[in-house]
Here is the input.
Amino acid sequence: METSRDDVGIAIRSAFLTKSTKQKFSLFALIILSIALLFTETIETKPLNFFRAFVKDAIYRGALVVSAPSKSINNFSGFIKEHLSLYDDYGKLKKENSELKNQISGKDFLELENNQLRRLIDEQISSSSNLLSARVMLDKQSPYLNSFIINIGSNKKIKNGMAVLDSKNFIGRIVDVNYFSSRVLLVSDLNSKIPIITEPSAHHAILSGHGKNKPTLEYLPENHNIKNGDKVYTSGREGIFSPGIPIGKVRIEDNVVKVLLFSDLSQITFVNINLENINKIE
Here is the structure.
């Protein structure tokens, strides 16, 4: 009989404890539990103090365990954001560094070019304006072994046979003139034959190119006394080149008298054209 009453009671409670009723009951139970815990705070007994300490430790530990994944996710998210930010900053700094390098390189190039032009202008002033400046242009289709194209021609009264200088040093002569360009045959070319005079021995000879950086001296006197270091100048014979233009210095190798040029022919950007004998060339 008692069993049946219990079953009836359970059935009645189940009927009343619907989902919403269960939620209200849980909230009510939590409120009662909170009030009870607050009430226990006013009671100072050893068992209750131990219980309170146990409950607080449990709550703190539980909160720590519950918050650990969130903190880990936040820390990891912060690490990823910081890493991405550093990567972006690195990319920006790398780009800025490249731009600065390009600016510095361009500035250095312009400064070098300005210095070269300033030197040419100074040389023209010191030479009573008998020199005309020109820029070397790239030339890969030359029938000569050693020549290049300059960016002025008959528009600037350039003529075949004019002397071409690097700074004040003789490096070649004009061999082909167009209206806006001209070809310069360098002293190292096989077709180059330049009358010269040596100093201090005062021997006349022909500077002959062989396709290399060191042309040789030909038609020297048999008993010449030329030594290493003697200087070589244009002689002015034939009246085309002005006399006394420096070319290089003597270097004797295997009993062959060669000339080490004062100018590096592979490093020339600007040249001067000597206009002094323009009337003789005409």
Notes: The longest strand covers residues 169-177.
